[in-house]
Each structure stands twice: as structure tokens, then as C-alpha cells.
Write a structure and sequence with these properties.
The structure is a homodimer. In chain A, about 35% of the residues lie in helices and about 25% in strands. Chain A has 17 helices and 16 strands. The longest helix of chain A is centred in the middle third of the chain and has 20 residues.
């Protein structure tokens, strides 16, 4: 009996063509869809189209509105159902003039950009002495009298990591620095860009002054400029900087999520929500952050649609305003969580380099499903991680409320070379790795949209 | 007898320490100096100092004057003799505001910088339709009526080469494009940067409108921006660009060469002239172009000086105004060629990546000397090339007039990633490869400054 079983198991391989690595004829349909997706061209087409025909699309601006129009037209043309916009209002902050220079002892220009919600200098700029710190903790520890009236500089030593974990720890100067510097009476703050490259392209990013704290001008120097300032400070002479940052708040404007669906055959089986965010920072064309996620999840959902009606409805959401605090995610949650029919969520928002890891936030009854997904992803070189999936910035509210989630973690080794810089452009995307992403999401959707078992809540943590 | 000779030849190896790769005790002093230079710190120190304490140093500006002061002080402190400035006057062109955007059909900003001697737009910019070409030849072939009043865009496909030869061929859009476009009545021209990187840092560079040709605004788009414009043009709709470039000519100002010497013991043996250029473009700190050449040649000459007085005088010249047409080289030639005592020249002006090739312009009587130099350089991984040495932009007049020359060609594979961009900063220099450069120049100087034979003219070609 054992021999017979072995023979039966071996049969597909024996009958398969000369190349024994070909899938056997009776392969899982999900595996077939996965492998077909390795030839996908739709994701590149969407990515190229959005970044070329819209370009930068800052949240709440007319550029983001053009991106919504573009996405609605494209998703409709692709045959998605219920294509619509979920609008919401938001305050908008926009960049102005941006200049920095060392005025003494070694006069020279530096390259700077404003951080989100930065305060403004007068049009002619400000000039003040620079005081440097190696960390937020050093700034915290400094007496207010040493900081008052000065331009604070905070350095750090962020290095690339595959899982992107450096962003949390080394992002502190951007997120906390401006508030602490303002509380201590600083005239302004410049931080070393929260990035891992050595190019003269500064990394912007959101920060919010704490309640009641006066907004001060807050900028990011490029990494080469931060290292230059560090060298200049190391000479021990007083260093003076002239800084001009003239961003402004333009009031309340509309943003919105673009939603599209592949209707399922079984309304009781629940809805799967995937997506990326449509907005980008203003300096690049938002190719890796996050036209890539828009393209990957749309292309994967489209492949499932083309293969025949799935059991579960797949909803693709292209979120608005992720970069500036995330108005789109909360709006979608507020509108749809009461319906109580979303069974699984997942967002792609970490570029387009290959997926290297899958993580789940599944209930105990779905262990077999997570095992099937893991097996489907293994041929793509994807390992199973031990952490619980969090579903990203826009969909994170769902697993926090108990909904099942899946994360496909992309390789982040070079992500923070380009993230939030003018350098986030189409040429940074590798089409081969982009296709692997589409294949991974196609496999996840194929397995979950057609899973015969219920997808149960994972429970709150 | 043969056996005895072999034994004698083997003796140094037998007596040497356990590591048989150690040089034998009676090694050529030039080889010893070469190997000691692999631990050099002076070149890095000069490079770091000049790029940090002066920073950008555009020819004819007060920044270049500060660089001369810095260099005179540094060379004097290092113990060089006859440290002096050779001043000359030059016209100065400086950058103004620089902005470009596609206004239709897909509004978005592009990153641009002015090319040297660019004409200016009005302060509010100009707006015109874009007409794209893939080469200067295509532009030449176009009827004037198709070009008149438009903004010309010229693309190209420059790729990295070790010997940098792509710069000549693919630099045509920058060097010839503006004049041709102006003659055809174009409103302005933008070229794809003459560079091999994919960053949003444009490559500037010199160009000169031909006699009698009206200067038009002439800029370089970054490579990602050029590719974006190419994609936008490929849609087939009329493309309109708004372009603002407001450079200006500031009149005649002073530049100068900084000269320093290691006096030789034999005035009749002639002078060896080496060096780099002190000026840089304005956007970066001129680390690879050309603080590196300044640092490498100064450090090599300093090593010879420290080892004892050489037979021949070594003159280090840090040229002014190389980037903008080369006022320093002709000035030095005009001042010193009549003396008729320069026997050998060589410039380092191609970054700081490793020297991979040596080439000579030697007279027939110096074949043995070139063989000795080749043998000295081989342990550094340097091959002998077949071309005649040209001695670079600043010293090229000398071999053209018959003087012997040596070229140490650096690996140019990544040179045009940074050249003439804001990205030409200290972090781009690899200290290990910088030291290999110092070792190579030290070897060349040791061999030539102390060569017992005459260094004869190579003759004119």
C-alpha cells in the first residue's frame, strides 16, 4: 500500500515533460495562476501609466484628484465592477522655497527639503548658529539654554535592512525631533534624511508637532549634506546656517479612495480587501511609494477576475492621503467595518522588490489555509515569518479590530535609498521583481478567494 | 655557473621572511616608496579638507579664490618650496533660478540645470512646445520650420565605459546641440544629462555657442527626467514645457593656478610637472572632479620630498578654471614653455577609482624607462596601454608641443554617475582606491625624478 501510494504520488512527475520541474498536469489552479503571473505586463503598464500620465500626486492637491480620475478610468476599462470614489476632506500643507547654506566658517550651499507640516521661515530665511546632536536622546538631554534660538541638527546612523526595521528606530529625529526642538526654543531643526543612500536627494516625510507646540521650520538634509555638516561641526568652530523654508497650509481640500471590485459568487463568504495608496510625496513620481502597490494588487485582482468568478468578492482600494497621516484608511474602515463582511485584508506598500516573506494574522481554524498559501509561495522564494501580519498603514485598523490579514513583505534593502525623495521614479522598479510580486498576490488571492472553508476572525490582540 | 647564478638569484627570497611575497631587502627604492604609499593618509586629508573647508569652488568666483588661499596655506605647511599663485583673468558665468515643468498634457515638474554659458529666460520663464530628437544628427536633419520657436530635447544612450570613451561620443548633445538649436531658431534646448546614473541630479558642463550664434537657454535634464519626457512624448500628443533658467554673466574676474615645488638636485635634468585642477562645478563639492587629483598628485610629490631630495624638480600645479574652458593650463604653458626645462608632464583628472592603465608619450630613447615604470606599476594591477599619453585638459599642450607625458588612467565605470552633479561629494571616494592612485603616482615620480638617463622630448605628432 505504501509502495502504491508512492507510485501514485510519483505519477505526475513521470508523466510530465522532460523537464521534471514543470508543474504536473493536475496542478492546483492557484499554482497555475501564480506561474502565469510571472509573465504579467499589466502591473508595469499601470505603474508606467500612473507615474507618467499623472506623475507626483500629493494628497489633497489637484494632482491627486487627477490620479483618482486616472484610476477610475483605468479600473473601469479593465472591467472591474462598482468602481467609485470614497471622498473625504483633509488639511493640506504644501512645500515652498527650500534653501540652506553654511554661512560660517566655510560658506557653501547644502541641499534641504521641508518635512511635512514644517513651519515656515520668513521669505528671506533665518540665520542662526547650529547645534548638533547624534540622537533624539542627546537633544532631550541638552539644557534648553544650549538650544534656544539655534538651528538644531540631529544625525543618526541608519543602515539598510531587508525588513525595513531601521525606519522605525532611526526615524525618531524626523518624527520626534521637531517637537522636542520647538519645546526647547530652537529657531529651526534640520535632520539627517531618514534614508540609506548617498545622493543629494533629501528624504521628506510626515511629522506632526504635538498639541500646543509651536511649529518651527523643520527640514531634512541629504545624507551627503548631513555628513558634510558633521565634518564642519567637528572642526570645533561656531557654525552658522542660513535656512529658508516657506511651506504653507492651504486649508481644507478633498482627497479620496478609489474602490473597485471583482464580485464573488457567494455573498456570504465575505469580502477580501487589498490595495495600495494612490497619493505620493510631491518630489518624485511615487513609483515605489506607491504606484507599485497600486499596480501589483490591481494586476493580481485582474488575473483572478480573468480566470473566472471567484467565490469571494475581491475589493481593491487605492487609498488617498496615506503619506500625510492616512485619511483614506480610516475613511474606508469607518464606511465598511459596520458591514461586518470583510474577512481578510492585505496591503502592498513597500516598493516593488521581490517578496521574501509571508506573515499571517489568521484564526486558529485557518491553519490549513495558511499552510496552503505558504506552500504556494515557496516556489517564489518566499519564507514564512513568525510575526503576525499587520496589513500596513491603510488597512491596519482591520487586524487591530480582529480581521484576518496577510502581509507579503518586500525586500527593503534598497527601499530607503529612494523613499520620499525626488529619486522615487519608474527606473527604480525592476520589472522581473515586480512580476514576482504580482505572482505572490495572485497566489494569495487565488487561495483565499476560492477557499472552501470559512475565513474566520483572527481575534484582537 | 648556471646553477650558481640561480642560487644567487634565489638568495634574497631564501633570506626573506616566511612570506615569500615580501620584497627582497635590496628592492628598488621606487618600489618601497610605492608600497609605503598604499598606507597614505595625506591624500584623504587634503581631499577631505578642500571639499569640507572650501566646498564648491567655481572658477572665477570668490569660492575659487578661497580654494587658492587654502591650497597655498596647505602646500606651504607641507614644506613645499616656491609656493605661489599664477593669476589670470577670465569671464564668469553663474547659475540663476532653474525650473522646468511639463504644462501639458501631463503637468508635472522636471529637474533641470543650466549648461555652462546658457542664455537666460525671462524671470517668469518661457513656455513652448517640445520637439524631441534622439541625436544631434536628427536635430541637424530636421527642417528649421519644425524647430523654430520650440524647446528642443535631445536624448542619447550613454552607458558606462571603463576608459570613459562614452563621454566624447555621447557628449555631443551638450557641446553641439545648443548652437545647432539656436541656429534653427529654437526657443531653448534641454538635453539628457551626459551621465550614466539614474538619480535626479542633473549633470552640468561647459558648452560654448559658436561665434555669432545667439545664446539660448540651454539645460540638462536628469536621466530619469529625460526618460520621463521621452515617455510623455511617446504618447503622441503635443507636449508643452515651461522652462526658467536665469544664469548671468558677471564680467571679468580673477582665477589662478597654485604652484608648488620639490626642488631637484640637478637643475640640468629638467622639471617634472604634475597636478590636477582646483576649481570645480558649483553644485557638488568637486570631490572626484577634481579635489581627488589635487590630493593624489600632492600626496605623491610629498612622499618623494620626504624620501630625500630627488634629482629632478617636481612641480605640482593646481590649475584654475579647468571646468569652464581651461584658462589655467594655457596660462601655465605660456609662462613656462619658453623656459624649455619641462621634461615630463602628467595630470590626474578622472576621479579617484583605481588606476587600471598606464600610457606613455616617450621618445625612443626612453623605452627602458617606460619599461621600468610599467614593471613598477604591475603589482598595483595596472596594465600598459597602446595609446600615446595626452596628459589631460590642463597639460595637454605640452605633449602636443613634444614634451614627454605619462597618463595613469583611472577606472571610469562610475565616474559619469557623479561628474558635474550635486552628487560629486566626498562619500563617492573610496579611500583604498585613492591610496592606490597615490602609490601609482609615487612610483612614476620615484622612477622619473631619479632616472639617471635623460628624459628626452617625445616629438610632435
Amino acid at each position: 500500500m505504501k509502495k502504491l501510494l508512492l507510485a501514485a504520488a510519483a505519477l505526475p512527475l513521470l508523466l510530465s515533460p522532460a523537464n521534471a520541474l514543470q508543474p504536473p498536469p493536475q496542478a492546483d489552479p492557484a499554482a497555475t495562476l501564480r506561474d502565469q503571473a510571472l509573465s504579467d505586463n499589466l502591473a508595469w503598464d499601470i505603474l508606467e501609466g500612473l507615474t507618467t500620465e499623472v506623475g507626483p500626486r500629493q494628497a489633497g492637491t489637484e494632482a491627486e484628484a487627477r490620479a483618482r480620475d486616472w484610476a477610475v478610468a483605468r479600473l473601469t476599462a479593465l472591467g472591474f465592477s462598482n468602481v467609485r470614489v470614497e471622498p473625504f476632506d483633509m488639511p493640506v500643507w504644501v512645500r515652498g522655497e527650500e534653501r540652506a547654506e553654511i554661512s560660517a566658517p566655510f560658506p557653501q550651499p547644502l541641499v534641504v527639503t521641508a518635512l511635512g507640516n514644517s513651519g515656515a521661515t520668513p521669505a528671506r530665511g533665518i540665520e542662526a548658529e547650529v547645534i548638533g546632536f547624534n540622537s533624539v536622546a542627546e537633544l532631550e538631554a541638552a539644557p534648553d539654554s544650549a538650544v534656544r534660538g539655534k538651528i538644531v541638527f540631529i544625525n543618526h546612523a541608519m543602515a539598510p535592512t531587508q525588513d525595513g526595521s531601521g525606519y522605525g528606530q532611526f526615524g525618531a529625529p524626523r518624527r520626534q525631533g521637531p517637537t522636542i526642538a520647538s519645546r526647547k526654543g530652537a529657531a529651526a531643526i534640520v535632520v539627517r534624511s531618514i534614508g540609506t543612500d548617498f545622493h543629494r536627494n533629501p528624504h521628506t516625510g510626515n511629522q506632526s508637532f504635538a498639541e500646543g507646540v509651536r511649529p518651527i521650520p523643520a527640514g531634512a538634509l541629504t545624507v551627503p549634506d548631513a555628513e558634510q555638516l558633521e565634518r564642519i561641526l567637528s572642526r570645533g568652530q561656531p557654525v552658522r546656517m542660513r535656512l529658508t523654508l516657506t511651506p504653507r497650509n492651504t486649508g481644507t481640500h478633498q482627497s479620496g479612495n478609489v474602490v473597485a471590485e471583482v464580485p464573488g459568487s457567494d455573498p456570504d463568504a465575505g469580502v477580501i480587501v487589498i490595495g495600495g495608496h494612490l497619493d505620493s510625496w510631491d518630489m518624485g513620481t511615487g513609483a515605489i511609494d506607491n504606484a507599485a502597490g497600486v499596480a501589483i494588487t490591481t494586476a493580481a485582482a485582474h488575473r483572478i477576475m480573468q480566470a473566472g468568478q471567484p467565490r469571494r468578492t475581491i475589493r481593491v482600494v487605492l487609498f488617498g492621503a496615506e503619506e500625510v497621516g492616512g485619511g483614506g484608511g480610516p475613511t474606508h474602515f469607518r464606511l465598511h467595518h459596520p458591514e461586518n463582511n470583510v474577512v481578510l485584508v492585505g496591503e502592498s506598500d513597500f516598493g516593488a522588490d521581490r517578496v521574501w516573506r509571508v506573515e499571517f494574522n489568521f484564526g486558529p481554524g485557518n491553519a490549513a489555509l495558511s499552510d496552503r498559501i505558504t506552500a504556494l509561495l515557496a516556489p517564489l522564494g518566499i519564507v514564512r515569518g513568525a510575526d503576525r501580519a499587520g496589513a500596513g498603514a491603510d488597512l491596519g485598523a482591520w487586524p487591530r479590530a480582529g480581521t484576518a490579514a496577510v502581509d507579503l513583505n518586500q525586500d527593503g534593502t534598497r527601499y530607503f535609498d529612494y523613499h520620499h525623495t525626488p529619486d522615487d521614479t519608474l527606473d527604480k522598479v525592476d520589472p522581473v521583481q515586480l512580476r514576482q510580486n504580482v505572482a505572490a498576490w495572485t497566489a494569495v488571492l487565488a487561495a483565499t478567494a476560492n477557499a472552501p472553508e470559512a475565513i474566520e476572525p483572527a481575534g484582537t490582540r
